[in-house]
Input
Amino acid sequence: MRMNRFSSAVLIGIVLCTSGNDRSFAAGNGDANENVASTATPEEAAIQAAAYKARLAARAAADEGYFLGRRGDFPAARKKFRQAIELDPKFSPAYRLRADACLKMSDWAGAIADLNTLIRLDPNYAEIFNERGFARRQLGDLQGAREDFDHCIALGADLLLAYGNRAEVELMLGDNSAAAADVAQAQSLAGTMPDSPPGRSTPSTREHQTHHKTPRTGTSNNAKGTTR
Output
């Protein structure tokens, strides 16, 4: 299954900061000065205005990183995502975007660091565990990878890639019966998927989506023969 992992991650990241979903791990789904009490002191108003300005600047940097990533310049994209985090450390989508840039660059440790941050912010976001499990598998941490895939699936995510990834790790660990069961489950899920992949979202449609509705995608690592 070959799909554009990076563009999907950007969709997820941008959606998280614009959606009204209360499970979004973006720090504040609306404007930084939303729901400000009318009795705010001048000092409080100044702090809120500064936070709003920082959020806008962080989003702008993340947008620049997105287009750099679309052109395949992942090192430059990662720098922009780092800039977004420096501008607004609470802008969680930037961590997800930077993790994906790291994965594209085979910087597994860098990806894990950002995915760890995301898990601390939202421990119930299943796909993050699948991403971290993939990175751990690349580093040879098979048991840690299996635990992440277990956690992803236990959260109730019928994520085909998680079953496929776990089956691969189980084979490497010598648990052939468990691997066979996961392969069968992955095949069953694949049979329920539509024949044609969903179209890419435009910026306008992304504003009305949540991360629950984003396409579940993966990449293939040709060197390892592994699919995410």
Remarks:
- The two ends are 8 Å apart (CA to CA).
- Residues 42-70 form the longest helix (29 residues).
- The domain at 5-35+42-214 is CATH 1.25.40.10 (Serine Threonine Protein Phosphatase 5, Tetratricopeptide repeat).
- Strands lie at 220-221, 226-227.
